[in-house]
């Protein structure tokens, strides 16, 4: 799918991990089944013919060009993809920084519902991309 989108496999993999726990029956747009119309934000999209078709749609919808830039821009793209609500809460996004010294707690537990005591159970994409050596040669 990197060929179809121009987006590196590491980025696609992180999106699938964060949104769908790498479950092939779920799509990277918001983690819902790719063969059904979405009920979560963004609502009313799909169904798609395949996981790949849904992933290509999601990447193109969210601005694939930003996923092929320098590391700060890629991280910003991930934050925008997930939502920028953490800025107003005064914390770094767990979507990016969970598992690092830049995040301890506070999380949106569903669309529009923030819990300052919730802790992300996922490792953030910045941590994952660093572990993969992503962008090290750029």
Question: What does this molecule look like?
Answer:
- The protein has 138 residues and is mostly helical.
- The protein has 2 domains: 2-66, no CATH class; 71-132, no CATH class.
- Helices cover 40% and strands 5% of the residues.
- It contains 7 helices and 2 strands, in the order ααααααββα.
- The chain has helices spanning 2-5, 9-20, 51-61, 71-82, 86-89, 94-97, 125-132, and strands spanning 107-110, 113-115.
- A two-stranded antiparallel ribbon has the order 1-2.
- Strand 1 (107-110) and strand 2 (113-115) form a beta hairpin.
How are the secondary structure elements laid out?
Elements: H1 2-5, H2 9-20, H3 51-61, H4 71-82, H5 86-89, H6 94-97, E1 107-110, E2 113-115, H7 125-132
Antiparallel strand pairs: 1-2
Task: Write a brief caption for the model.
It is built from 7 helices and 2 strands.
Shape: globular
Strand content: 5-15%
Question: Any idea how many domains?
Answer: 2
Helical residues, percent: 25-40%
Q: Name the structural class.
A: mainly alpha
Element-by-element helix/strand order:
HHHHHHEEH
User: Nearest-angstrom radius of gyration?
Assistant: 15 Å
Q: Got a strand count?
A: 2
Distance between the termini: 22 Å
**Poorly predicted runs:** none
Report the sheet with the most strands, covering strand number, pairing sense and barrel closure: 2 strands, antiparallel
Number of helices: 7
Instruction: Give the overall pLDDT as a whole number.
Output: 92
Widest sheet: strand ordering: 1-2
């Amino acid at each position: 799918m990197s060929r179809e989108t121009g987006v590196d496999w590491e980025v696609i993999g992180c999106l699938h991990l964060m949104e769908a726990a790498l479950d092939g029956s779920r799509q990277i747009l918001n983690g819902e089944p790719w063969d059904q119309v979405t009920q979560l934000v963004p609502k009313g999209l799909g169904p798609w013919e395949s996981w790949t078709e849904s992933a290509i749609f999601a990447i193109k919808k969210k601005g694939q060009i930003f996923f092929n830039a320098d590391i700060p821009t890629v991280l910003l793209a991930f934050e925008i993809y997930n939502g920028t609500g953490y800025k107003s809460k005064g914390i770094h996004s767990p979507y990016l920084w969970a598992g690092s010294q830049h995040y301890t707690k506070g999380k949106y537990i569903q669309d529009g519902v923030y819990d300052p005591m919730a802790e992300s159970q996922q490792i953030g994409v910045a941590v994952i991309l660093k572990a993969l050596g992503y962008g090290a040669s750029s």
